[in-house]
Amino acid sequence: MTDLSQFPISRRWPASDPSVLQLYSFPTPNGVKASIMLEEIGLPYEAHKVTLSDVDVKSSEFLSLNPNNKIPAIIDPNGPDGAPIGIFESGAILLYLGEKSGQLIGTTAREKTEITQWLMFQMGGLGPMLGQLGFFYKFAGAEIEDPRPRDRYIGEAKRLLAVLEGQLADRDWIAGEYSIADIAIGPWLRGIDFYGAQDVLGWDNHPNVIAYLDRFLARPAVQRGLTIPARD
């Protein structure tokens, strides 16, 4: 039987079946990237709910796996060298699972490069900017009277949506075939409605992005992954 005792996180969130991949997450836009990917590739796994509260993400057990105290994180008991490996950062997890399964990362060097650059577009741009938009438009930052932070992120979110609208003018998926880039981008686009920011961003003026998100959300694996782990 696989031994995960080297990972302190397994003491707080014990594995029922340590022979399968262990997912530590919560259904946020970043968190569901991992669960959607796992559902898409069909790799057996076990999900553990790690809430966003400090008692979980800043616990010594979770920090032992991800010192950056952010979900998601995984342990693969069957790592590249046959030994267990822990991985954090949602983009790194998508790349790892794509390489491990040989799925959704392209087959040629050119395809992999195209997919990776759009994954980085989400990691470095779309996700952080929409996250800040949410903070300043819906959450605590909305109470700040100075309009400049809010206007800054509204403007940047509009710019990024325009980039996506142009890229999707002649294709169904962001980098050609459905890939980890779409798994990264789709959940963040879905979050715009949660932030109540569709009107301020002119969402209806992006028909290609709207159709793209509809295609993404129609995938059975996406529908399952969006609810894993369950919030309750």
TrEMBL record:
Gene Ontology molecular-function annotations: transferase activity
PROSITE patterns: GST_CTER (PS50405), GST_NTER (PS50404)
Keywords assigned: Transferase
Domain GST C-terminal: 108-232
InterPro entries listed in its UniProt record: Glutathione-S-Trfase_C-like, Glutathione-S-Trfase_C_sf, Glutathione_S-Trfase, Glutathione_S-Trfase_N, Thioredoxin-like_sf
UniProt xrefs under SUPFAM superfamilies: GST C-terminal domain-like (SSF47616), Thioredoxin-like (SSF52833)
GST N-terminal domain residues: 18-105
Record-given protein name: Glutathione S-transferase
Natural source organism: Phaeobacter gallaeciensis
